[in-house]
Task: structure prediction
Amino acid sequence: MEAITFLLDFILHVDKHIEAFVLAYGVWVYALLFLIVFVETGVVVMPFLPGDSLLFIVGALAGAGLIEFAPACAVLLAAAILGDQCNYSIGRYFGPKVFQWEDSRWFNRRAFDQAHAFYERYGGITIVLARFMPFIRTFAPFVAGVAAMRRRQFTMFNVVGALLWVLGICTAGYFFGNLPWVQQNLDKIIWGLILVPGLIAVLGAWRGTRQKALQSP
Result:
């Protein structure tokens, strides 16, 4: 219970925790940043770790001179790219096993084939956009691996998505994170970075399901 409480407090007050870690341990913060982003993107069971808010806070801390911007971005980029590659590889490992399954209560071969076709056609843009959506960015590379998306194609869009995600949000934090209004409303911004992309994803999924239901006889 204490671990869950600490995790929730860390997610909602990531700025204070990261700043305290920098003041206490200095350059070891780069190892912590790598670990958080790698686990969030690379371990399919850990989608709840902070992502967008962490990048924004890192940019803000760099803007305040507490950490170096370029090394922080390099570490976060490496973690994001390697994390997705790890997640994809896990899915790719289980993919061939899934291909051997027969239709059952737990597996629908037609749905699996549709997922494979979808990732062959739209997998690239899905991987890029998923970077900006909590939870989805953790599951998208895993599903891409299970759906047997080509590794070369996945890797290219993985790198593109990581560059846009890390550099985009860190740069925003660097230039805007220390403005008085932002500092006063940082808790609301963190909530927004967590909830808004998630709500957009849920709405998109709901609309897709509703449209499919309307098209069904």
Remarks:
- Residues 114 and 213 are 16 Å apart (CA to CA).
